[in-house]
């Protein structure tokens, strides 16, 4: 079986690494000559909307998936007319537009922060009495890891906030007084079978995920599963999905969802019986889904902008290094490392040491 992937970055790389033991091969479409998955696949070098390359991808792949949600939805729809594409294009379309996404959550009775559509400075001025300060203005489309966002502290910031959008359609969201940020990773196959991973408790800085730690038997697990099940079934979803949530006094409010494998689920590579990447492949091929049971204590630490030496990282017990074959650059995820141990004290010691190394080379 040959899997086509739109995008050839680190997520495609990890999908391919999970697929090789299953006897799968890969073809990726990516405009970057140095795409991280290029060495593990047949690399179609070119734009995502190149009709000749899309036709070739559709002809060669038994099923097509994607590694990030900013692939043009019409590209996914074009491919779906010629071959099987999972997750479905409608999930991609909703996830690409923050306003559609928030409206979709509300239709499903999943709580969110207060929000309003913003198409002009006047819209922003009129919305703020109800939204309240502080708030965050975000472009409706594109933007990730804190990009395309402006924190609005008071009415004095409104002009600058709107100017930062460069006229693009936007959404303003009220701040949520949350105790923690969590996410849930789930997978669904065409038959409707669903598996859920334990919650990840996530720590961000500068809008970028720094640490994701598995929280087995978390008291919010059932609530998170209920929320993500609603999404999966409403979208007739196939593949892995990630739902990011704010925990507000035990009540979970939806932030956003990602129709793909997700950074907060990287701990599953060593920390779960079946990784999110393998279960994504199982799901899109309609194969039985693997166990999501955690293997002891597990967490993931991102390396942003730079990387500690391999010797420093690999000298730590219970640590597994994953390099993305990316040149260091400010704000860029260049690698991650997971920590996994059956012993809680040893796990915490290694996690603390790993976080210190990540902070020393942080260039975000």
Summarize the topology.
Layout: E1 2-6, H1 10-19, E2 25-30, E3 42-45, H2 51-60, E4 63-66, H3 73-80, E5 84-85, H4 89-95, H5 98-107, E6 115-118, H6 121-131, E7 135-139, E8 149-152, H7 158-164, E9 170-174, E10 180-188, E11 194-196, E12 199-205, E13 208-215, H8 221-234, E14 239-248, E15 251-258, H9 268-271, H10 276-284, E16 297-304, H11 310-314, E17 319-323, E18 333-341, H12 344-361
Parallel strand pairs: 1-2, 1-4, 2-3, 4-5
Antiparallel strand pairs: 6-9, 7-8, 7-9, 10-11, 10-12, 10-14, 12-13, 13-16, 14-15, 16-18, 17-18
Helix pairs in contact: 1-10, 3-4
Please summarize what this structure is:
The chain is built from twelve helices and 18 strands. The chain has 364 residues and is an alpha+beta fold. The protein has three domains: 84 residues, Rossmann fold (3-Layer(aba) Sandwich), CATH 3.40.50; 61 residues, Dna Ligase, domain 1, CATH 3.30.1490.20; 182 residues, ATP-grasp fold, B domain (D-amino Acid Aminotransferase, Chain A, domain 1, 2-Layer Sandwich).
């Amino acid at each position: 079986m040959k899997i086509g992937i739109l995008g050839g970055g680190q997520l495609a790389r990890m999908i391919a690494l999970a697929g090789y033991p299953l006897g799968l091969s890969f073809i990726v479409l990516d405009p970057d000559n140095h795409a991280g998955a290029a060495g593990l696949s047949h690399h179609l070098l070119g734009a995502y909307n190149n009709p000749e390359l899309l036709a070739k991808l559709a002809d060669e792949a038994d099923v097509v998936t994607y590694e990030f949600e900013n692939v043009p939805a019409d590209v996914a729809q074009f491919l779906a007319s010629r071959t099987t594409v999972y997750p479905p294009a409608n999930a991609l379309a909703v996830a690409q537009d923050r306003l559609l996404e928030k409206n979709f959550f509300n239709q499903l009775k999943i709580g969110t922060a207060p929000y309003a559509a913003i198409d002009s400075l006047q819209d922003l001025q009129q919305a703020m009495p109800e939204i309240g300060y502080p708030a965050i203005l975000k472009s409706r489309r594109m933007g990730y890891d804190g990009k395309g966002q402006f924190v609005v502290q008071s009415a004095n910031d409104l002009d600058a906030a709107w100017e930062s959008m460069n006229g693009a359609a936007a959404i303003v969201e009220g701040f949520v007084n949350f105790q923690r940020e969590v996410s849930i990773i789930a997978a669904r196959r065409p038959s409707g079978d669903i598996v859920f991973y334990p919650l990840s408790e996530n720590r961000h800085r500068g809008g970028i995920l720094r640490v994701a730690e598995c929280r087995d038997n978390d008291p919010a697990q059932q609530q998170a599963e209920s929320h993500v099940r609603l999404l999966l079934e409403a979208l007739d979803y196939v593949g892995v999905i990630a739902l990011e949530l704010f925990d507000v006094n035990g009540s979970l409010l939806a932030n956003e969802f990602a129709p793909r494998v997700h950074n907060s689920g990287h701990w599953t590579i060593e920390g779960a019986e079946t990784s999110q990447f393998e279960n994504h492949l199982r799901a899109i091929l309609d194969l039985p889904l693997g166990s999501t049971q955690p293997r002891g204590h597990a967490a993931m630490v991102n390396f942003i902008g730079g990387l500690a030496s391999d010797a420093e990282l690999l000298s730590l017990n219970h640590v597994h290094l994953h390099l993305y074959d990316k040149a260091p650059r400010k704000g860029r995820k260049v690698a991650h490392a997971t920590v996994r141990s059956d012993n809680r004290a040893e796990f915490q010691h290694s996690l603390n040491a790993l976080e210190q190394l990540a902070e020393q080379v942080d260039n975000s």
